[in-house]
Structures are given as structure tokens and as C-alpha cells.
Design brief:
This protein is mainly beta. The chain has one domain: Jelly Rolls. The protein is built from 1 helix and 17 strands. The strands form 2 sheets. Strands 2, 3, 6, 7, 9, 10, 11, 12 and 16 form a 9-stranded mixed β-sheet that branches. It is globular, with a radius of gyration of 18 Å. It starts with a strand and ends in a 14-residue tail after the last strand.
Length: about 270
């Protein structure tokens, strides 16, 4: 018989007044990571803060455009990554409220090492705060969605499997608990607000430890409007993605009889 135990090194209630540097990195280019954002959205650590018991990522327009890697960046977001990887068999969850702009709000896992030339990406939740006339036709409801991917990156190609369900309200209107049980190397089960919602079975072994990623970025299929939209003119609340907590669990042998509710708390 087994019981769920909290993995302290990957869990955070975001108390205090600054990010826990023993668990997370907010510098985008560090510790073997080199991705600094998708133009025109640049990742910058200065957009991350701990406040009111939340990890908050705020988006805005850059004071001056930045040219990096031959691309022009006009706006800014951020990415927060775990310092330690999660493992197959573990349960990952966060309570998140999306920002209300065209930029994303996400919670996912990515491998850093493993099979040469390959990476495994497990997107638990991926959404945007606002869609516009410029949004790709297939993404017109991505501001009110629970959407998950398993992506097997094989340079220069990728194999993607995805599932989603619609939400009644916009992702920016309410907090939701988004979760995934990396149940085995060939099964990932996804949960919305504590309810099992769908399962994805990868076609390749999902067996490489992966790091938590919380990214707020710009997608080319949901571009920044010419006038910047709410990224430029929105209130602080509208421009902020809020993570109330992140919790990771693993099954361990029970050392005493189980309580009535020994599952992870997905509420």
C-alpha cells in the first residue's frame, strides 16, 4: 500500500517576499537553458515577483525595442523553471489564474538532458488571456480552455499529441487547478480542478526526468495587436499571471494506515 507524499524541492506556496532561489530560476538563460522568449516577447527576470502569497508574472511593453538573435523584441514576459527535475510516476499541479492579454499563461515540463537530439515536452496547461481578429481560426477559444500536449521534439521535427476541454469562463477570470499524473512511461492523466479529464498515451517512452516551466510568452498564432492591446494599456491585474501554489507528489510506501483521503490535494 502506498501514500502520496509531497516533494518539497518542487513544491511552493509562494509565501514571503521573494522567489526561493533554492527551487526556482527566473533568469531565462542559465543552468543549461538558452531560450529567452519568442519574438516579440522577451523573457526578463524583472517581471517575476512574489506578492500576496503568489508567484506573479507581469507583462508589458519594453521601454525600447531590443534586437536579439537577429529578431526584434517589443514586449516582455518571463519564464520560471525548477532547479530540479520531476520524475515519471509523480503528480504535478498548480493553481493558476491567467493574465488577460494576448500573451500566454502556462504550466509544463521539459527535459534538458536525455536522448541526444531529442526533448520531451509535457504541457499540463497552455492558454492565452485574450483572442482577437488576428488570432488563428483554430485558436479562437484558447482564452477559455484546458489544453495539454505531449510533444516529442526530434530535430528538426516534432511529434505532437494534444487534448483539450472548453471552460465556461475565460482563463483570466478565475483560478483553476491544472494537474497531470505522469503515471508511467506510456500514460499521462490530466486533471482540471481535481477531476480526471483526459489521458494521453505517448508513442515513445516518456522516461526522461523533466523540469517544471512557467512561461508567459507571445505566440505567432495569437500576435500582439499593432496598438499593443492590453499588454500596453491594461491594468496591473490584467497584465499579471498568478500562480497561487505549485505542488508535486510522489507515491511512497505507507508507514501507517492511510487516512480517508490520502490523494494529492487538487483543490
Amino acid at each position: 500500500m502506498a501514500v502520496w507524499r509531497l516533494v518539497e524541492a518542487l513544491s511552493d506556496e509562494f509565501a514571503g517576499d521573494q522567489i526561493d532561489q533554492t527551487k526556482w530560476q527566473d533568469e531565462p538563460v542559465a543552468n543549461g537553458w538558452g531560450w529567452y522568449g519568442r519574438a516579440p516577447g522577451l523573457f526578463q527576470a524583472g517581471n517575476v515577483k512574489i506578492q500576496n502569497g503568489e508567484l506573479q508574472v507581469t507583462v508589458s511593453k519594453l521601454d525600447q525595442p531590443v534586437i536579439r538573435g537577429g529578431k526584434k523584441f517589443t514586449h516582455q514576459g518571463a519564464i520560471v523553471r525548477s532547479l530540479l527535475p520531476g520524475q515519471p510516476g509523480w503528480f504535478f499541479e498548480c493553481r493558476m489564474k491567467a493574465n488577460a492579454t494576448v500573451m500566454s499563461s502556462t504550466f509544463w515540463l521539459m527535459t534538458k538532458d536525455g536522448r541526444p537530439g531529442e526533448r520531451l515536452e509535457l504541457d499540463i496547461q497552455e492558454c492565452v488571456g485574450l483572442v482577437t481578429d488576428l488570432t488563428a481560426p483554430w485558436a479562437k477559444k484558447w482564452d477559455r480552455i484546458f489544453h495539454s500536449n505531449l510533444i516529442h521534439w526530434i530535430k528538426p521535427n516534432k511529434v505532437q499529441m494534444q487534448k483539450s476541454v472548453p471552460l465556461e469562463n475565460r482563463n483570466s477570470e478565475d483560478f483553476h487547478v491544472y494537474a497531470a499524473w505522469w503515471k508511467s512511461t506510456d500514460e499521462v492523466q490530466f486533471f482540471l480542478d481535481g477531476r480526471p479529464t483526459y489521458t494521453i498515451n505517448p508513442k515513445t517512452a516518456w522516461d526522461v526526468p523533466a523540469f517544471i516551466q512557467m512561461a508567459v510568452e507571445v505566440y505567432d498564432w495569437n500576435p500582439v495587436p499593432p496598438d499593443g492591446g492590453l499588454i500596453d494599456t491594461g491594468t496591473l491585474d490584467q497584465r499579471t499571471t498568478r500562480y497561487d501554489w505549485v505542488r508535486v507528489w510522489r507515491l511512497e510506501p505507507a508507514v501507517q494506515p492511510l487516512s480517508a483521503d490520502a490523494r494529492p490535494s487538487t483543490r
